[in-house]
Design goal:
The structure is a single chain. The chain contains 10 helices and 9 strands. The chain is of the alpha/beta class. Helix 2 (about 35-45) links the parallel strand 2 (about 25-30) and strand 3. The chain has 2 domains: about 1-160, P-loop containing nucleotide triphosphate hydrolases (Rossmann fold); about 165-290, no CATH class. The N and C termini lie far apart (about 60 Å). The longest helix has 23 residues, at about 215-240. The strands form 2 sheets. A 5-stranded parallel sheet has the order 2-3-1-4-5, sandwiched between helices. A 4-stranded parallel sheet has the order 7-8-6-9. Helix 1 (about 15-25) packs across helix 6 (about 145-155).
């Protein structure tokens, strides 16, 4: 029997997570009044209703009663009840964007700015994040990727990977990614753009990869980069960071950065202590600009 408390920031994907857990066989209840939570846990954990797994959604709509959860969780821990806390989070910019897209009002904004409501909510939910067994930052996750993470935890019982790393290629002429944590400039490498037959290709093509990797300079750079990332990644995990963006840039984001981003992704893909995704932000932008012209 598993009892999962699903909570987190408004707009971070709690409702989606509950629907996904329901598809995985969990009995789900959302936004129960705090006084009923203890009764819900008692019924589900006693298995009198034949419920194997249950998920309970709790969010800021519970208001001032949220503070009571500390006492409830302490009591459950004392009784050794098997409960877990899943906290869904996202960056402030992502949350603001999602609210604007849906045209919904933040529950704590009180008719004011969305970002002020987000900051109030972070303060009120801080204790839940500190107590969480699993923290998933959905800022960069697609819906299918969130589902995969939940399946790993609650279906396949795999080791939870708290740090989710995005390897991102980009072009400097389109701007440095605003969410990048680490930025590496590879414009010193041979540029396939100046080879006519390679110009329309990308770093996904073998001919471009071979050109970029010639003379050994790129290989030497990758060895030094691997060494640095091998040191940094586990330390970010220990620090409790949930989301990390490693950005690799060249001029247009089509040849050199794509080649090296693919190499970094392939190097760390087998690792189990963190999640990994690959994104090529600007790989097609040159083609789009040409069509517009």
């Amino acid at each position: 029997m598993r009892l999962v408390i699903v909570t987190g920031m408004s707009g971070a994907g709690k409702t989606q997570a509950l629907k996904m857990l329901e598809d995985m066989g969990f009995y789900c209840a959302d936004n129960l009044p705090i006084p009923l939570i203890e009764k819900f846990a008692e019924l589900t954990l006693s298995n009198q209703e034949g419920i194997r797994n249950a998920a309970l959604g709790i969010d800021i709509r519970s208001g001032e009663d949220l503070s009571v959860l500390n006492r409830i969780f302490d009591e459950w821990s004392r009784k050794r009840l098997p409960f877990e806390i899943l906290f869904l989070d996202a960056g402030d910019e992502t949350l603001v964007k999602r609210y604007k897209e849906t045209r919904r009002a933040h529950p704590l904004a009180a008719g004011g700015r969305i970002d002020s409501g987000i900051q109030k909510e972070r303060g009120k939910l801080a204790f839940l994040k500190e107590e969480a067994d699993y923290i998933i930052d959905t800022s960069k996750l697609l819906t299918k990727e969130l589902k995969q993470e939940l399946e790993k935890i609650f279906v396949n019982h795999e080791s939870y990977r708290n740090l989710y790393i995005t390897i991102l290629s980009f072009g400097f002429k389109y701007g440095i990614p605003s969410d990048a944590d680490l930025v590496f400039d590879v414009r010193f490498l041979p540029n396939p753009y100046y080879v006519e037959e390679l110009r329309p290709k990308t770093g996904e093509d073998k001919a471009v990869r071979d050109y970029v990797m010639q003379h050994g300079t790129a290989g030497l750079f990758l060895d030094k980069l691997y060494d640095m990332l091998e040191f940094l990644f586990p330390n970010y995990v220990l620090e409790g960071k949930n989301q990390l963006v490693v950005a690799i840039g060249c001029t247009g984001g089509k040849h050199r950065s794509v080649t090296l981003a693919n190499s970094v992704y392939d190097r760390f893909k087998p690792r189990e202590e963190f999640g990994l995704r690959l994104e090529h932000r600007d790989i097609d932008k040159d083609n789009i600009r040409k069509r517009m012209v």
